[in-house]
Design a protein that fits this description.
5-stranded parallel β-sheet, alpha/beta, 11 helices, 315 residues
Length: 315
């Protein structure tokens, strides 16, 4: 075998080339790196395999005449599916390793909200002594929308701290961490009992704009929503209205409809919003390369790939 592999990353494709190492030659791989759309345009026509960051210029796929397999360095694949893959191209993703890190993110910000840490830090900066009444994660209800690999890690972490956890899944599942698991048509009762709603759903046709005004109105007025999935799952205009009108307590947002979030966007200045720059599930080079290597012999044999994407379902 002698596959031509295009490795794309917008800032550091060399890190992936280095991790693939000299052994790539013995594995029969011809590697080429790209970090810009111009470099992709020069190389995509010869590539049989694409090992890529999620912000690949997907319009270039139209010129990928020899392409047969794409392995995405991260977990999200909605851009690739929306772009329309060339016929016969298989798509796999790196996942399963993000759960523990994303669970830490979710716990950190739920605890920050419950214990009012941002306000305490602001008071410290002002040298202002003020007792702040606060709550605890223990005894609260956390609703995790999307209890796949990542969502279950979050559910287990919250349950370990004494929270009551409920899940939402396309196919309801059982797990010791979950008190209950709701189906897609039970979204309103699912959010209605929650103190925190954590979103880890994939972005698909069914989930785009899923969290809109009716859902926010069904939540407690004190509840916070944490979006760690994809920005368009939350209807942004409805979210801003719900936040400004006190329909919900607040939001921790790591993903947005437009990224980077424009400097003049109203979410920056809202007192009940915490903005982070899409860093809850950062990809480690070593993990992405390990996933690619695991799938390489499967691709060559025509076998099912680990974390192969069902293009019909969107994940």
């Amino acid at each position: 075998m002698n596959e031509s592999v295009l490795v794309f990353h917008p800032s550091d494709p060399e890190a992936y080339l280095e991790a693939l190492g000299e052994s790539a030659r013995t594995e029969g791989l011809t590697l080429r790196a790209a970090r810009s759309e111009t470099e992709v345009e020069r190389a995509i026509g010869d590539a049989e395999v694409l090992f890529s960051a999620n912000d690949f210029p997907v319009g270039q796929l139209r010129a990928a005449a020899r392409l047969r397999w794409i392995h995405v360095q991260g977990a999200g694949v909605n851009r690739w599916i929306d772009a329309g893959l060339p016929p016969g191209v298989r798509l796999s993703r790196t996942t399963g390793s993000f759960g523990p890190r994303m669970a830490e993110y979710a716990l950190a910000y739920m605890l920050a909200v419950a214990l009012r840490i941002p306000e305490a830090l602001a008071n410290q900066a002002d040298r202002h002594w003020q007792e702040l009444p606060f709550t605890h994660l223990r005894g609260s209800t956390v609703a995790v929308a999307g209890v796949g690999d990542i969502g279950l890690q979050i559910a287990r972490a919250c349950a370990g701290l004494g929270a009551r956890v409920v899940g939402l899944a396309r196919t309801p599942r059982r797990d010791p961490a979950l008190t209950a698991c709701y189906g897609p048509d039970e979204l309103i009762p699912f959010v209605g009992e929650a103190d925190f709603v954590v979103v880890t759903l994939p972005l698909t046709r069914a989930t785009r704009g899923l969290f809109g005004r009716p859902v926010f109105e069904a939540m407690k007025s004190t509840a916070w929503i944490i979006n760690m999935a994809r920005g368009p799952i939350l209807h942004e205009t409805d979210l801003i209205a719900a936040l400004s009108q006190g329909v919900i307590g607040g939001a921790v947002l790591d993903v947005f409809e437009e990224e980077p979030l424009p400097p003049d966007h109203p979410l920056w200045a809202m007192p009940n919003v915490i903005v982070t720059p899409h860093h809850s599930g950062i990809t480690w080079v070593s993990e992405a390369v390990a996933a690619f290597r695991e799938n390489l012999p499967r691709y060559r044999e025509g076998a099912p790939l680990v974390h192969e994407v069902d293009l019909g379902r969107g994940y």
